[in-house]
Design a protein that fits this description.
By secondary structure, the protein is an all-alpha fold. It contains seven helices and no strands. 11% of the residues are buried. InterPro entries: DUF2059 (IPR018637).
Length: 166
């Protein structure tokens, strides 16, 4: 599950990095940003931020395996860090909202928000991680098969022209 969540998180981070030049444009209104934030959250996108934070805390808590004498203090520190990490996560939620607001009008965001509040939208968000896992798995197979197909066909066609590819 962590691997799948990490994959989703990495994809989300990559998308935000690609979107960063857009943030230089005019600032959207507060209501526009609020709607965009609502879409980012209700779409399930922001759960990828949680998927990135939890492994950090789990890794930190693994220290008590090698140093049992610090277990209680470490547990307290992790509890103390959670609200701070939540603040860091909220910054990414804000960035996601800015990315949406820079590409979608308030009316479009309102329609999207309404979809995510609908039974179909809620079901979509619920099944999305599994669908993404399936797509990533299938994409790996498809990529390998397509690469083999291209090389086989290229060899055939180059052979017809008197060239042999290795």
């Amino acid at each position: 599950m962590i691997r799948n969540a990490s994959r989703l998180a990495a994809t989300s981070v990559a998308l935000f990095m690609l979107a960063s030049p857009v943030f230089a444009q005019a600032q959207p209104s507060a209501s526009h940003l609020a709607l965009a934030r609502e879409v980012a959250i209700s779409s399930g996108m922001t759960r990828s931020f949680d998927a990135m934070v939890e492994p950090f805390l789990e890794q930190l808590q693994q220290m008590n395996v090698t140093r049992p004498e610090i277990k209680n203090d470490l547990t307290q520190v992790v509890a103390q860090l959670r609200p701070e990490l939540e603040q860091h996560k909220q910054k990414m939620v804000d960035n996601a909202a800015k990315a949406f607001a820079s590409r979608l009008s308030e009316a479009e965001l309102r329609d999207i928000s309404n979809f995510y509040k609908s039974p179909a939208g809620m079901k979509y968000v619920q099944v999305q991680p599994g669908v993404l896992d399936d797509i990533v798995r299938d994409l790996a197979t498809w990529t390998q098969q397509t690469a083999q197909f291209v090389m086989t066909r290229a060899r055939e066609e180059m052979g017809k022209r008197g060239h042999q590819l290795q």
